[in-house]
Predict the structure.
Amino acid sequence: MLILVGLLVTLLGFLISVLSLTLTSSVGGRLVLVLLGLAVSMFGIMGLLNRHYLKNANWKKGVN
Amino acid sequence: MKTLNRLLLGLVMACCLAPSGFSQTPATPAPAAAAPAPAPKPITDADLANAPVPAADARAKGDPDGSLTGTASDISVTDTKKGITIGDLANQVGQNKIAINFVWTLVAGFLVMFMQAGFAIVETGLCRAKNANHTMMMNFMVYGVGMLAYWLIGFAIQMGGVGAVANLGGTPVLNGEYTITLFGKPFGLFGMNGLFLVHRGTYDVAVMVLFLFQMVFMDTTTTIVTGSACERWKYAAFIISTFFLGAFTYPIFANWAWGGGWLANLGVNFGLGKGYCDFAGSGVVHSVGGVTALAVSMILGPRIGKYTREGKSNAILAHDIVIVLTGCFILAFGWFGFNPGSTLGASGNGALRIGSIATNTMLAGMAGSFGAMLYMWLRYGKPDASMSGNGLLAGLVAITAPSGFVNPVASVIIGLIAGVLVCISVEFIDRVLKVDDPVGAISVHGANGLWGVISVGLFADGKSNYGGSWNGVTGSVTGLFYGDNGGQLVAQLMGVVTLLGFVFSLSFVFNLLVDWFVGQRVSAKSELQGLDLPEMGALGYPEFELKSEM
């Protein structure tokens, strides 16, 4: 489940950035939205997807 | 003391007066207005017919000084009865220009192909001896598997709708871009011409040159993943994953950036600078490889023994640092094909900038190796060899996107930052994310590829001129530090988010499917024994005494 949520959040960041093209025409506004999208995508990868794999890491199960 | 002061004062006054004295020298009188030069006489076919050519008997004696070879007699004529004409001459000039560009692009492609050897020995040297055959074999076959995928479908997706490539004489057959309308603007998504290099008239000399050059770029991307996944990747899974990367993931993003897709057109459609600008592929080649490497490494998990039960990272040492650094040199050599070759020519449309691009490449690599070496020396007390090598590569990766748009000082700054960034990124990925990346590929190519993309939006100096426009927008690529309003930086960041949000997700989903249906990771028994025998059937070093962990 965490994998699916992580993937959706990662893609959401991309969508936010693409939507910035139509939500505003100002460079500053687009910059803010693109940076927001970047942060969301990075959270999806590092905060959700990687967390899933860390939970089930081989070294936690003593395979090391 | 007073005497000394007077002497000094006198000396200063003499120095000050001397130039003014010179400046008072009467100027050389202007020459009398010359009579207007006669209008140039147009060359006629008759002039060309009378052009001196070496006599046959003179030519028969040989040409030791080269003065008789390559004359008007070597120009192809369309009508032997009429002899050489202005039209023949113009055609020969045009063909010479395109020939120069073909040869330049092909030789640059050959250099990039040789980078495969560099990647192979860098990655093999950084793994343990018991996995040498397996790692080397992945790097060897990535060339063939990636090329097959790209020839079958990848090239068509990437370049099938690029339109005319002027430096290669135009490629009008590549005119099939699939486009949707979004927000009232056309969004190019993928190309459709060029399957098998014969589809829809693509059996064409210029298309062949373009294919060869783009193919070796794609292969660079695929070989990045083998580094981060080595020592635990099942060989069959590697083949399938590489095929998908060469056929779909890489070509899709490359189309968006280089093939006439929507990222390249952010300038034309939305006024964001010159659109997404990635001169030679920090994003297209290196970041695509880097984020795919991250996805595969997360799915694979760390090597056995990499982390203690408390999560503390153990260093797993490289087995041959000599070939690692030799490989780094080979890669640096190949990069002279990578970046300057991306002009796709040496003649016309600002292609003489190749000198600047090559120098920028060299400088950034130097700065990257210095940055990494100094960082490691200051932080750990020793100038780490493998990280110095990674610093060189990081500098080269980072300068790849901006190499055609920045000046030498910016190149050194970009490279220096890359050299430090790669060390910090390796530590972060290893200790915080706990993603095992045996060669540092995610940091070298992923993190620094993204940095290279961003740096275009900051450091592009507006001095380059590739035919007067870039991505269909008139003018030169200019970054924030050189007077741009930030639009170029937004376009670059849009590329970064696309790489992290879309390309990573696509790679992750596909490799997850491979994991479910084929299995990505070898058995623990094979991993402990070393992958050479279980996966390849032969040891890389059969006469060495290997340290097995069984």
